[in-house]
Amino acid sequence: MASPTPPPPEQPETSTTPEKASEPPTSTPEEPSSAEPTVVTPTNGDWQAIFSPQHNTYYFYNTVTAQTTWENPLLPQPQSQPEAAASSSSYDAALAAGIDPSLAYLDPALSAPAGSSSAAYTSTAKFNARTGRFTANDARDPTHMSEYERAKRMSEFYFDVGAWESQRDQQQQEEEAEGKKRKRPSKKDLDRFKEQKRLKKIAKTAWLRT
User: Fold this and answer.
1) pTM value?
2) Following DSSP, what letter does each residue of 20-82 receive, concatenated?
3) How far apart are the C-alpha atoms of 125 and 43, rounded to whole Å?
């Protein structure tokens, strides 16, 4: 057999309507007079939400202490002190900047907490030029349709473009390094070059002396 539903707690507002007077009082279990009163601390699992058709809302009943309340005991308590400190700091900052304190919330610099970092949050996004929709950051950019990129994609069907480019860069680096290491010709080398040039000139005009 199901236990009877506990009655809802009385409304905190005072009213003179007959309906409020007819509400049953909150029932508490009677304990024997010989037993000492024990203090029971309610936990989160002991609360039950019960709907009250008369008030068209829910009230909360503790199965251990038989306590009823209109406020949800499972919700965290609001922290009013940090909010008050933040509001007072924004009020002082607005007065110092010559701004109406009632409009201080419109300025992000005044509404931000004092202990937060001064660096502003920034973000970047790409948009499609035709549709105007957001585009992923790793999506294709306009350089995808450039002449170089199109030629590269067509050449990849026949050979490895990446390997060819790396090989070409390596060759250029080797040539530059070799050019830097090239030594100046010595005096013996200059004399040899002059002698070779003289012999070559004599060979060209040898038929005139025959």
Assistant:
1) 0.25
2) HHTSPPPP-----TTSPP------GGGEEEEEETTTTEEEEEETTT--EESS-TTSPPP-HHH
3) 48
Q: How far apart are CA 146 and CA 25, in angstroms?
A: 83
Instruction: Give the type of residue at 201.
Output: K
Q: Is the pLDDT of residue 30 over 60?
A: no
The answer to whether residues 88 and 82 touch, using CB atoms and an 8 Å cutoff, is: no
48 contacts 63 by C-beta, under 8 angstroms: yes
Distances (CA, A) of 63 to 27, 40, 50: 12, 11, 12
The DSSP call for residue 127 is E
- Cβ–Cβ < 8 Å for 91, 78: no
Q: Which of 102, 76, 8, 82 is nearest to 48 (CA)?
A: 8
Q: Which residue has the higher pLDDT, 143 or 192?
A: 192
Contacts of 65 (CB under 8 A, 6+ apart): 40, 42, 46
Q: Could you tell me if residue 99 is left (phi over 0), alpha (psi between -120 and 50 degrees) or otherwise beta?
A: beta
Q: Give the CA angle between residues 44, 50, 54 to the nearest 5°.
A: 145
> Which of 32, 39, 31, 27 has its CA nearest to residue 67?
27
